[in-house]
Amino acid sequence: MRAWRVEQADALRGRIQLQGAKNSVLKLMAATLLAEGRHRLENVPAISDVDVMVELLEAVGARVARPEPHVLEINVPAASELASEPPAELVGRIRASVVLLAPLLARTGSVRLAPPGGDDFGSRPIDVHLDALERLGGVVSMDTDAVLVKGSPLVGQRVVLEFPSHTGTDTALLASVLAHGETIIENAAREPEVVDLCAALTAMGARIEGQGTSRIRVLGVPRLVPMRHRIIGDRVVAATYLACLGMTGGELEVVGVDPGVLEILLRKLARLGFEIDTDTSAQRISAAVRGRLRAGDIQTLPYPGVATDYKPMLVAMLTKADGVSVVSENLYSGRFRYLDELRSFGADIISEGHHVVIRGVERLHGATTVAHDIRAGAALVVAALGAEGSSTILGVDHIERGYDDLAGTLRSLGAVIRTDAKR
To answer: Which of 192, 191, 258, 199 minimizes the C-alpha distance to 228?
Structure first.
C-alpha cells in the first residue's frame, strides 16, 4: 500500500499558486457534452478525479487531449454519436459522475446511470438530481443496477430545491439550458463553483440570470456552442494550506483565489490568532501565525458559510489550539470517520451528535493512520505536520483525488514529506 511519511514541521514559509477547483472542473467537463465541437478548459488540476472524468467522457464518445499542462481539449461529437450509458465501473469511482445525467439526457433523450461513487460520509442520495429532472419533463425509473431517465425535449419549469444543494443546482442548470422555455431554480446554491459553471454555460450561449443568488432564471436556447474557459482557484485547497499554517506557524502567500469567497473563514481564522491581509484584485491572501492558536467555535453552513469540506482540516488544526473548541457539522451527519485517526496522534477529541469537542493539547506524537476520503486525508497531513517525530499516512490515493501535488507543494514551503514510503 502506498504511503506518505511526514515529519514534524517547524514553520511553513513561501508562496502557493493555487490549482483549479476540483468542485468546478468536473462539472465543467460534463457541461462540454451539451455542445458539439472542440472545448478548451484551462487551469485544470492534475488530480485523479479529473483522470476518471476524462475516461467517462471518452467512454460516451468524446475525444480528450492534453495539449499542455493543466489544459484539456474536449471534442464532443453529434448527439447521434453520444452513448447514453456511461460504464458502471467508472461511474462508481467518483460521485461527480452524477452530473452526467443532465447533459446526456438533454443531448440524447435518455440516460442510464449506475450508482455514483466517491467519498463515503453519510447518506447522500441522488434524489435532488432526479427531482429536478422530473420537474423538467424527465421520466425516472430504477432497476437494481441503475437509474434510467427519459425525456425529450425537456421543458422549462419552476424547480424548487429542498436544500441548496451544490450539485443539485448544477444538475438543474445543465438540464435547463437546452430546455424549451423558462426555468426558475429556487433555493439554488450560491457557491462560487456554481457561478463558475454559469459563466462557462453563458460562454456557450446559455441565457442565465441570478447566478450567485438563491434564485436563478434560465431561458432555454435551441443549441449551444463550444467554450473556452479558465477554471477558478480551489478555495478548499486554499483552506487546507491555511490549516497547515495554523498547525506549524510561519507565513504564507496564497495566490489564485478571490479572498471574498473565503471571507467568513478568514474572519474566523483571525479570531483564532491568524494575521491576515487580502488583495482581491491580485487574488491574494497573505497569512501569518506566530505562536499557539486560540481555541474557537466553528459551524459548517451552506455558502457563504464555512464549507463542510473545510471542516476536517480545521478540526486537525484545532487539536493543538489553546483551550476547548467546538466544531459543528450541519450538512453531512456521517462525516466524522477521521476522528479516530486524529486520536492516534494524541488529540483529545469527542463527538456528540453533530458536534466535535476538541480540547487542545500542547503536543501531538507521530502515528500511522489511514485516509478514508479526500479531506480526511488532508486533515491527517495537517496533524502530521504538527506531530513530534515521523508519521505515516496510508490511503494517499484519496488525497490525490483532490489535491494537485499536495506533498510537493508542502515540501516547497519547508515540510519534509516522502511520497515513496511503503507500509
So the answer is: 199
Report the alpha-carbon distance of residue 156 to residue 154 in Å, rounded: 7
How many structural domains is the chain composed of? 2
Q: What is the pLDDT of residues 358-405, one digit of tens each?
A: 999 999 999 999 999 999 999 999 999 999 999 999 999 999 999 999
pLDDT at 275: 98
How many C-beta atoms lie closer than 10 Å to residue 143's C-beta? Answer: 8
CB of 360 closer than 8 Å to CB of 318: yes
Provide the 10 A C-beta neighbour count for residue 53: 26
Continuous segment of H or E residues that includes residue 406: helix 406-412
Q: How far apart are CA 60 and CA 73, in angstroms?
A: 16
Nearest to 386 by CA among 413, 423, 361, 407: 361
Claim to verify: residue 245 and residue 96 sit in the same structural domain = no
Shared domain for 186 and 105, answered yes or no, is yes
Is residue 356 classed exposed, middle or buried when 0-12, 13-18 and 19+ CB atoms within 10 A define those classes?
Answer: buried
- Active site (catalytic) residues: 119
CATH number at residue 50: 3.65.10.10
* C-alpha cell at position 203: 460562454
pTM of the model: 0.96
CB of 7 within 8 A of CB of 421? no
> Looking at residue 420, what is its pLDDT?
87
193 neighbors 232 (Cβ within 8 angstroms) = yes
Label the pairing between strands 355-359 and 348-352. antiparallel
Q: Are 266 and 285 in contact (CB under 8 A)?
A: yes
DSSP H helical ranges for 308-373: 311-318, 339-343
CA–CA distance, 308 with 265 (Å, rounded to integer): 11
C-alpha torsion sign, points 174, 179, 182, 187: negative
DSSP secondary structure, 251-285, as one string: EEEEESS-GGGGHHHHHHHHHHT-EEEEETTTTEE
Domain boundary among the residues 208, 230, 252 is at 230
Same domain, 170 and 308: no
Task: Please state, in angstroms and as integers, the Cα–Cα distance from residue 44 to each residue in 51, 125, 323, following that order.
Answer: 11, 28, 40
Contacts for 127 with CB less than 8 Å, ≥ 6 apart: none
> What DSSP string describes 40-64?
EEES----HHHHHHHHHHHHTT-EE
- Which residues sit opposite 13 in a β-bridge? 251
Q: Mind listing the pLDDT tens digit for each residue in 254-289?
A: 999 999 999 999 999 999 999 999 999 999 999 999
